[in-house]
Amino acid sequence: MTERLPEVIPWSGPASVRQLAEAPGPADGDLDAYVDRIAGVDPRTDLRGLPVVAAPGPRVAVGTDAPRVDLPNKVLGRPRFLTDLRPEGLLHGRVLRPPSPAARLVGLPDGWSAPGAELVRDGSFLGLAGAREDDVDRALTALAAATGWEEADTLPDEDDLATWLTTAPAETTTVVDDGPPEPTHSATYTKPYLVHASIAPSCGMAQWAEDGTVHVWSHSQGIHRLRDAIAEALGLAPGAVSVEHVENAGCYGHNGADDAAFDAVLLARAFPGRPVLVRWSRADELTWAPFSPAMRVTVSGRLAGDRVTGWSHEVWSQGHTARPGYAGQPGLLATAQLEGGRALPPAVDPPPAGGHGSLRNAVPGYALGPLRVTGHRVTETPLRTSAMRSLGAFLNVFAIESFLDELAVDAGVDPVAFRLAHLEDPRAAEVVRQAAERSGWGGRLPEAMGRGIGYARYKGTGAWCAVVAEVEAETAVRVRRLTVVADLGTVVNPDGACNQLAGGAVQATSWATLERVRFDRRRVTSADWEGYPVLRFPDVPRVETHLVDSGAPPLGAGECAQGPTAAAIANAVHAALGVRVRDLPITADAVVRSIESEETP
């Protein structure tokens, strides 16, 4: 018998909670106003009755490994996820997505029906709901066969994304322009579209009450923004929507969790009083969840002897943020398919205070002389893009660290020594030195193997991280070992920090060597694990993580290993083969293309 999850209690707070949240905060020192405001949210909370907080005592937990209390249930397969919820009266929901981003619904037989499922239609939005999952899945297959769509060629050439990025309409931002001198070296680096590819697809559950309010269960990262977006999309008062977070397969960045939740809301609206659980398919997840945008970076520099005396960095990319509520619109996938719906606007970028998006980590952390750093945010949206781990930092760091290696080779200087000579930040230099020492930098390796290094301080304000990769490049590119050294400031839970660093490095290995969204001029074609391969367990490298005990304030480990790992892998491939691969992913075919391009006069 399946173990039931504890009952999920819907939100029953005051309808005016949004107004309370948006009300001006109390002035400094206005304690009574603050206490009254908290009491308005929950009258049961009386801050005046709380004891005075004692002065902090000695640290007893900081720096101590903490056990993962969630692992036993996950390992034993006990119900704990959103997909495990089985409330009374549950209906299972599915949504039929168009075959391509520009497809228009042109045919659906009148009176179409299928056993065990009911059709819900609003404009081009087609959904199904029923009491039995297998009935709904069969009905979805039948509905797909009965539906007609008109499609058009609206996608760019996948094999020439770099040209499309530099010719599409764009908004230009200059971060710094010191007027660097005429460069002596230049190179261009690219990455393809990537998808989050969580092992389990997104899902969402919703239930409409008889009074017109709706409660939503979601694994969204931003339940408050999702609440507001749902309310805006359906013309509801914000207090009529409540969203509750329930754990499910990873929701890092902006995957399909918000969209699946809105799908559930649209289906549940047709069945008041009954909860509807919508589960996306693998094809939905790989073709309709927001992508990490394709990018192009051109780096130029002046090399004088063994010193860099000028640097230019130029980025082209779609925006990296399309979360619910962006650009003044709900930003939920199905809103574009509803009757009278509007096309989703182009993704935007976070502001500089939020670490940029396309320009994240575009300013190098080295003393390189006069700088020029410019970004071009493409304002066309052939494929929907949004936030994915490290945003633009993944390619920007890859480009900077690859280009530094190229300059080091031309200068005849060891890549580690070359970096240290251009680093003025002692904490940066320390992680680079330790990564080199701990990885055995300079030691002999078997034939067709090489070592490479990559470094960055995430966002220019976060954690310092250096990675050394050992790569075998014979019939295929295989990453055998990664040495990751990071300065995170004071670390509360070292085991958790090391897990975060190792996970980021492994994922970056998958991005750098395998992953790429595939598409033709009409539709995304990488709709399964064969079309969109990810790193599998036998190919996961050995990862060694080391934390620098700087004693400084804590910074966090999230996302700092991604860019350095990709750069280290590319630099290791060059050390092994003498060929520079500038276009991700670094597959055997990419290596051959790079060899052929270098041989072409």
Task: Describe this structure in a few short sentences.
By secondary structure, the chain is α+β, with helices and mostly antiparallel strands. It is 27% helix and 21% strand. The strands form 5 sheets. It has a 7-stranded mixed beta sheet, with helices on both faces. Strands 6-16-15-14-7 form a 5-stranded mixed beta sheet. A 4-stranded mixed beta sheet has the order 17-18-19-20.
Written account of the structure:
The N and C termini lie far apart (70 Å). The longest helix has 20 residues. This protein is 27% helix and 21% strand. The chain has 14 helices and 20 strands. The chain is globular. The N terminus is likely disordered. The chain has 601 residues and is α+β, with helices and mostly antiparallel strands. The strands form five sheets. It has a seven-stranded mixed beta sheet, sandwiched between helices. It has a five-stranded mixed beta sheet with strand order 6-16-15-14-7. Strands 17-18-19-20 form a four-stranded mixed beta sheet. It has three domains: 37 residues, no CATH class; 161 residues, Aldehyde oxidase/xanthine dehydrogenase, molybdopterin binding domain (Aldehyde Oxidoreductase, domain 4, 2-Layer Sandwich), CATH 3.30.365; 272 residues, 2-Layer Sandwich (Aldehyde Oxidoreductase, domain 4).
